[in-house]
Fold this sequence. Notes:
Number of helices: 10
CATH topology of the largest domain: Nucleoside Triphosphate Pyrophosphohydrolase
Structural class: alpha/beta
Radius of gyration: 21 Å
Amino acid sequence: MSQEDFENLPTSHVRFVVFFISKEGVRLLLIRRKFPPYNSKLAFPGGFVKTGQDPKKRALDKVQKETGIDLSDSLVTPLSRRHKFSRDPREEVVSENFVSFIVGDDPEDYHSSEGNENYEWYYLDEIEELAFDHGAVLCEALSYFYPWMPVPFSREQKTLDEVDRLMTIQGSSLESFGIKQLDLNKPVVFFGGSFNPWHKGHGACLDLCPNKNILVIADSNPWKSDQLHGCYWREFREIVLRYSKAPYVFFSGFYGMIEGNPTVSWLPRVKCMEKELLVGEDTFLNLVRWKDVKILTQKIKTIYITPRTLSGHQEKSIEKTSNELLKYNPELIIKVLSDHEYKHLSSSQIRGDN
């Protein structure tokens, strides 16, 4: 399906992500579904849209009807429109997604009437899994808590500013969930991958990297099939909670994206002191094939390489690849890290991919 065809598809479904920001932390408004599919599973308020209905108004009405929460005076902003990963077991849907951020001492202050669903406010670490593709929508919505991180989808600057203001006023944070903030005044290491699944080899990369100011970026590009491979939130949550005591920062905004997301489209625009890259040996040998590698290489100060057990015939060596990259940036520093016992592990082999 072309982008033009997608944009011309009528909206058939809406979902609403509602964050409540308080001194105790950030909570999320969810309902527990009463009927199939995904009966008894947690989900966002929402529902189907009839022809001629305004999606935003329909989404606000569904929140009011299902939870009794009135968001008519709240800041509401759209998230990505979804089709490929929004497939409902009952039929294909095109979903409009919205997010709102409200602040206060008690979320029940916004409860103006009785809803007809079993709703509740959840802290992030309490949410294990979401129905449909709502986990991917949550991953995207969380990007609003990282205003310094560029994203390919549209975010309203006024909403980014407002969320930052609300978090500052309330003294709230996401650290109870393990989501921390980077020190942007120091060199930042970017470590990306699908991590499907996360394994001890990934952990070894973090352990070996001498700079611990690391941003782990879960990306979903390899998941480009017609079927959703599980809940993106569940996968991301497991990784974050595993490293809740570590200094690493985790970014979910790209997880569950529909389109590809080349590194050059966002890394050069991150506003930090210096940019460094952490990659496995196999990834490093393919760096020269990345999109706009010349531009990307010129924006990177250091590349850290973790050894991997390479399968098949490798035509290139680290030295040869390094020489090619140094043509683009003669000041680039390339460091091969120590050997480790998990270099043979591969996510694709663990998944059983052919």
